[in-house]
Amino acid sequence: MNRIYLLVNIKVMNKEKEFNDYRSRLNERLLGTKDKIIKRIYNLDTNAFLDGHLNKETKELIGLTCSLVLRCDDCVKYHLGKCYELKFKTEEVIEAMSVASLIGGTIVIPHLRKAVEYWDELNSHV
Amino acid sequence: MNRIYLLVNIKVMNKEKEFNDYRSRLNERLLGTKDKIIKRIYNLDTNAFLDGHLNKETKELIGLTCSLVLRCDDCVKYHLGKCYELKFKTEEVIEAMSVASLIGGTIVIPHLRKAVEYWDELNSHV
Amino acid sequence: MNRIYLLVNIKVMNKEKEFNDYRSRLNERLLGTKDKIIKRIYNLDTNAFLDGHLNKETKELIGLTCSLVLRCDDCVKYHLGKCYELKFKTEEVIEAMSVASLIGGTIVIPHLRKAVEYWDELNSHV
Amino acid sequence: MNRIYLLVNIKVMNKEKEFNDYRSRLNERLLGTKDKIIKRIYNLDTNAFLDGHLNKETKELIGLTCSLVLRCDDCVKYHLGKCYELKFKTEEVIEAMSVASLIGGTIVIPHLRKAVEYWDELNSHV
Amino acid sequence: MNRIYLLVNIKVMNKEKEFNDYRSRLNERLLGTKDKIIKRIYNLDTNAFLDGHLNKETKELIGLTCSLVLRCDDCVKYHLGKCYELKFKTEEVIEAMSVASLIGGTIVIPHLRKAVEYWDELNSHV
Amino acid sequence: MNRIYLLVNIKVMNKEKEFNDYRSRLNERLLGTKDKIIKRIYNLDTNAFLDGHLNKETKELIGLTCSLVLRCDDCVKYHLGKCYELKFKTEEVIEAMSVASLIGGTIVIPHLRKAVEYWDELNSHV
Predict the structure, then answer these.
(1) Widest distance between CA atoms in chain A
(2) Which tens digit of pLDDT belongs to each residue from A30-42?
(3) Which of residues 43-62 of D touch A (CB under 8 A)?
């Protein structure tokens, strides 16, 4: 009898890694253009979220909620990643996003769904 | 001679079902957080589209067109689903969306394309 | 004894008239530029709100609510004026705007305040 | 000799009071409509900014910055008023708004100007 | 006979000057806060509109039209002022804004009205 | 020994073609509805970007940057395709988009990433 081995390399990549890889690759591409405005916007973006008069935790919540009301899924993901690193609790992140949903209206709900899905993915790594 | 049976379970899922399943699963996840604001926004959302001084047909057209000018594809899909249940004719839905496209500008057109694609999918079930 | 007559011409202009006069004057200015795109947008705008597969009442509600979620005060005023001419009841207009406020979030509330103020002004003419 | 008394009642009202009076008067008008959706949105809005998993200070910063990126001057004023009551320092409020300006772009700057003008007015009462 | 002299100092200030004065005063206030993010955004804003791979005329048209579709009246005024300095013809400015109005929809029209009013004011100085 | 031939037809379609095919198919669907408003918006859209007081190159840059600040990925792709046909250099397109990113804020960055990815794809055909 013949045995047929079907070896299938399924490239399982979690959503978080996929997002970060795409982001990094294209950020490098953009910074590689040597465009000064883009370079300085990126630079500003890094500095703006460091500890200052407000601590970086508060700033990340600002980044998260502003991204949510502006309905930018990738920006929300980025700030959720940062919130995860800063050890925010799920109920804090959810509450921040609930306030943003009230401000931005039900139009924000589809983005809230994607956000909680990504947050759960981040927390499933343990 | 060897016979090789390749049993492939192709999970064919239509766009409508895929959208509704994803939506339901994450709505449950969000309501499961016990966050009061989210719960009450969902509740309000259900009540707002019931018959009142305006009938629910008119309200769905409002929901559809507001979603379109705000360029929220998932919201548009949701309201198209409701419009389908309420037996709107294609020409009525298209006309409502054409008014919204004029108000919102050509920036709305890519969302209008997705909308008509989804509307046709809803109508292909018969 | 000297009598001093102080004749003061107080130009009392209601908000509605002021809005309409400003609008008309600058619409004429814009159409006077002979720019074809502007001319055709204006033309389209007139046609889009006529009776069609949907009646003009429904279309005005669409115009009103889309303007409200996009937070364009002048557009809201314009459509409130049309709704007034079409003999909409206050509770209908308020309900339409409440649905829009839910969709667009609390960010819409300041525009809702201006809207109801203008609606009351329209209704104070009797 | 004739004396002419010109009694002029100059109604000097500071911007803060003017804003709050207008806001209160029209909120009452809206709540007076008995529209349930509007009533419940107002109710939710009050509850959302109370202490919860996040304290009310953090929530006000969220309210302030979301309002700023959405470019709603009246919403910004409202949250600045709350930040003032909560004894935020100027440098904290400015830093929060600078993060929002980076997120929302230079299109936010005109609203930032109005915001700092109102903040200074709030602080000039002492 | 008694002569009554009524000396009235009417502070006639044109719209352009009023806008520029307000802008300058509050820009100074903001830069006076020593907030680094704000300072660098202002700096970037100055640099971005200088001649580069694209000339400054093209960049001003980009600034003007992006401001218009984002419906920021003050930003539109600012770029109209720059376009005036750069000796743009009325038909060029109008055409640029007509393209923006098509992209952004009829919701842009009220801002187009204000824009042409301000442009005419700029051109009435001769 | 048994040889098993697995013939797999991989449908490799580049992003550009995929985008254009989808766009064309649904544009035809929409124009096939005979809705007059939609037909005329499409018509206007074609005319608006032809040479006029401004040349079509300038108009495409306006279309590109307005699409970017409004964060419409499909609109950005469309105008990038046109810019490619008009032989724009990479540094010109990047500079135009950097100005738009400053105006629209960091919320635009995820769309800028997709834009440069698509631009590179357009340029990889040679």
Answers:
(1) 74
(2) 999 999 999 999 9
(3) 44-45, 48-49, 52-54, 58-59, 61-62
